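Appendix B, record 7
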Amino acid sequence: MAAISSPDFSSRPRIVRGAIPPRTAAPAWLPRWVVAVLLLLLAPFSAGAAPTLPAVAVHYGSQAPLADLKVFDITVVEPGHGHDPVKFRQATGSELFAYVSVAEVQASRPYYARIPAAWKLARNGAWNSEVIDQTPAEWPAFFADQVVAPLWARGYRGFFLDTLDSYRLAARFDEAAQQQGLVRVIETLHSRFPGIRLIQNRGFDIVPRVKDKLFMVAAESLFKGWNAADKRYEDVKPADRDWLLGQLRAVRDTHGLPVLAIDYVAPHDRATTRETAEKIKALGFVPWVSDGDLQTVGIGGVELMPRRVLALYYGAESPSINYSIAHRFLQMPLNHLGYVVDYADVREPLPQGVLRDRYAGIAVSFGGFIPDGTAPSVSRWLQARMDEGMPVAFMGSFGMVPDEALAGRMGIESSPEAARGTLRITRQHPMMGFETAPTPPVAPFGPVYLAPAVAGKAQPLLEVTDQRGKPGVAGALMPWGGFILDPYALVDVPGTEYFRWVVDPFAFLTQALSLPALPVPDVTTESGRRLFFSHVDGDGFPSRAELPGSPFAASVLLTEIFEKYRVPQTMSVIEAEISPNGLHPDLSPALEDIARRMFRLPHVEVASHTYSHPFLWDRNVKHGVFDDKGEAAINLSLPGYTMDLRREIVGSTEYINRRLAPPGKPVKILLWSGDTAPSAEALAITEDAGLLNLNGGDTSITRANPSLTAIGAHGIQKQGRLQVYAPITNENIYTNLWRGPYYGYERVIESFEMTDKPRRIKPVDIYYHVYSTSKRAGLNALHKVYRWAQAQPLHPVFASDFIRKVRDFHTYAVARDGEGWRVRGEGELRTLRLPPALGTPAVAASQGVAGYAPGVEGPYVHLASGRAWLKTTPPDGAATSATSAEPARQPYLRDANARIDGWTPQNASGQTAFDLKGFGPLEFALAGAGGCQVRANGRALAPAQGAGGAMPAAAAAASASVPPPSSTYRLPDAAAHIQILCPVR
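Structure tokens (predicted):
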């Protein structure tokens, strides 16, 4: 049978199937698949309410998306692709199993040359491999030493054994002797590698003899198969299925082993994939349903929820992706809805493999027409994605006059009769008029006319009618997605640099892309309270303050801010401003001493603001003052120095660690300077140096510009490297580029408030430069802002903590798991925001969930670690099934100003325990603890009166359901072990 075409074919594992007849009576047709295998781990949770079977996946791609696959307990991979099973296990708690071929070997394998010629029993021409005789006495040891031992040394502890039946390809063989050889191989592995877990693919005849040494038995094509010869997906014939079912039931019921059933469905057909997985699960087997090449994330015991959206943009419309419409305006709403945005510039070949396994949809963002030479390929690509069922949302422009094929696929008229006379708005959807009302269309705007075939299925967003009464639309929700055309997506405010949303971007993107309600990984909140931190760019460190004695601005910052407000602060310096070899060598001793005193403070985190403060980070991008390629400086002027990225990033860090930072407290963060738009190279240097990074984003919403367009995204990815944006911009913007008014930074309080309600989109970040303390008005503004923060019920963290949460957001995995949700992260991000449609958390029925707090957009769920299983109670309070009612209520954490660790839910003795660790005195609230005793570090604790941690009444009223009463407790400690002792009912 012909091999399946695959990018990784030369080293790709495969399972021998139909070419080898089984010894027992079997159907005449047994498919031969290139399949991967999954295994079964111990159940992730022991509670009866949580699923009891682990989830297994298999992915043979060279670029397997391990960040998504970590939602499964086990993933079988091709070990030749260089995966690190130890790192994966430590970071995720999940396991990688290695595919190994027992009875066949290809010449590409490193041990091939060491196999004696006498052991080669036959040749499998279809796979260009040699079939290995299983009878030589030395073979089991060879296989253990040459095949498994190197993988064991790399950290693999689980193995999928394939090609056990390949000896049947030989012209002559001794069935009993070959099978005994296979048994000896498995016995040798079990003896040589204590704790090894083996998944055996088929080989049903030897199962009775090795069942105590197997972890699982796998087989493929129970309901759906892949015909490699004809390259098509097929239904398995009933007779074949009945035979295989008999074998699998014997494995499970007679021999007591779990069964993994692997089926194949076209990757874009998620409905059939889901249906097939459910059929397998209903039989009591572990399901895995994926594509025939095992290159996509299929559906198994859990279903990964795709959290990525691909944004198409035209790169020539802006200096760089940082300034594109897609990034400036579309990414933030998608981030807030829980989605990660990838970008594709239509000037480059458009990506393949954009499928529903990992992508929720495609957002197309063009400011005008793309080149005529580009349009046809973009049109064909979009049609192909629509044909695969991928939702597409156009926002702003189609980028072209849709050709006949695309127009037909979209259901719009390709050449409508031109509108006559004045157009007027005759109907508009509730999502229109979001920040500004739509105005009547004027030339050159032309409406889109819906084809009669889709007119009844479409939902117009804005209907416009000409003098003939002929209705057209400026936007509509369509069966394939939706579109909204300018000027009814965004408009600019004349005479300003401001914009306004005409359409509600949250509603439009949700409905056009058919985004489901799912738990949203949230980077703004932890333990129910909004995050708070502060970070300082080192600019102006040597400046003299306009205060008595003309002290250094840095000295004023130390005494007036850092020593008074003992909250997490991240401080940076510019090496060239303070070092002996910099711009001010005579001032260096005093300046370095101030920096050392700052960095010794326990609540100050060490950061670098580079060596020479680059103003332009990417020399290939010209914008602003650099547009004319004139003499604009790209960094501070240092004699004899030409800007070098490694010197700026690594060199400045080494300087700070060597001369300024206390022992054991190295630089953690690189704070971008200047245009804060680093290249992928700069991001790579930073990450490879072990540094986090922050700055950019330009969130500056105020009452003077009350638009969501003034709120930036979480960050931006370039060639796989992530730049994390500052939540709120610095004082430079509020003071007209430090030209006054110098008290202007106090308006950042407006930004804090407007990014909290009606949606909490950002944490509180007091971000400024050292020079703010050089003027009394600037210093007063800082005091006002810090005092405002002290009066709020916030959760203090370092900037590095926030950065890690944003990084975790970008790789977070969410899956449907039975009647609940399985979530997997790196343990940094500990909050899920539940959309109202999902109801409220059923804390007692969940695992790894410590509690929740009401929020305006839905409850904030507190996770005890990076792994949890969350069950929710529907908004109406009804159970989802007869067996899904929540157990008796137990105490839970309502909110806290500290991180939760070691959460132990209520046990049979009525005790709940957990640890809290924060900055400064602890404050926390408990719900459902009426009549219980609360102890902290072994001492009885009484509720406080008038605590600041209670949620606002408006937030509670907006919650999906009214939570139980809560009591607030206060401690002078920054860390505590909490016990809740409740009467046993």
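Remarks on this record: The first strand starts at residue 56 and ends at 58. The radius of gyration is 31 Å.
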